[in-house]
Amino acid sequence: MTSATHRRIVARRSPIHGNGVFATRAIPGGEEVIEYKGRLLTHAEADELYGDGGETGHTFLFTLNDDYIIDANQHGNSARWINHSCAPNCRALVAESASGDPRRDKVVIETIRAIRPGEELTYDYGIVLEVPHTARLKKRWACLCGSPRCSGTLLKPKR
Predict the structure, then answer these.
(1) Are 36 and 107 contacting, i.e. CB atoms less than 8 angstroms apart?
(2) Exposed / middle / buried, residue 78 (Cβ in 10 Å: 0-12, 13-18, 19+)
(3) Which one of 46, 82, 95, 135 has the minimum C-beta count within 10 Å?
(4) What are phi and psi of 51, to 5 degrees?
(5) CA 143, CA 139: separation in Å to the nearest integer?
(6) Which class would CATH give 3-125?
(7) Rounded CA gap, 120 and 54, in Å?
(8) 106-111 and 32-36: which strand pairing?
(9) Tens-digit pLDDT profile for the chain (159 aa)?
(10) So what's the pLDDT on residue 1?
(11) DSSP the chain
(12) Strands 68-71 and 39-42
């Protein structure tokens, strides 16, 4: 993370959930804010470490591609504290490596509109679990964003 990134954002307690990431100055729309960093795991390694992820309702795992997951529990940066919102002001983009090596793909968080100083950065997590979305599971993955457009859950329909 560059020192310019440090000046633009700060992680602190969030009214949405736990910690959050906030702009310390105005950030224009369409600008890359931070890369989502962590240890690279295969899907099998992530399953072995954390199970299917459906039971905790909390994760710092980010699916990078068909081969790998980024585990921000290990060697993660402040991007892991960016909260979900049903009305996000940022989006997460997977940037494929120019060499075609899936190990070199990365996730960047980019603003989708201008961000005001003091505003919390959010993106739609788009979590898809391949298990049945029971009432208990939806409650465990409840959304706390407070948006008028809130769906009530971080879970998205299965593809």
Answers:
(1) yes
(2) buried
(3) 135
(4) 75, -155
(5) 9
(6) mainly beta
(7) 26
(8) antiparallel
(9) 444 555 899 999 999 999 999 999 999 999 999 999 999 999 999 888 887 655 555 679 999 999 999 999 999 999 999 999 999 999 999 999 999 999 999 999 999 999 999 999 999 998 888 888 888 888 888 999 999 999 999 998 876
(10) 45
(11) --HHHHHHEEEEE-SSSSEEEEESS-B-TT-EEEEE--EEEEHHHHHHHHTTSTTTS---EEE-SSSEEEETTTT--GGGGPEE-SS-SEEEEEE--TT--GGG-EEEEEESS-B-TTPEEEE---B--SS---HHHHHHTB-----TT--SBSB----
(12) antiparallel
Q: Residue with structure tokens 């964003």?
A: 145
Look-up of token digits 């633009």: 8
- The two three-digit tokens of residue 116, written as one number: 């005001």
Domain boundaries, the chain: 3-125
Of 44, 51, 49, whose CA–CA distance to 131 is shortest? 51
Token pair, residue 147, equals 């948006």
Distant-in-sequence, close-in-space partners of 69: CB < 8 Å, separation ≥ 6? 40, 41, 42, 43, 45, 46, 61, 62, 63
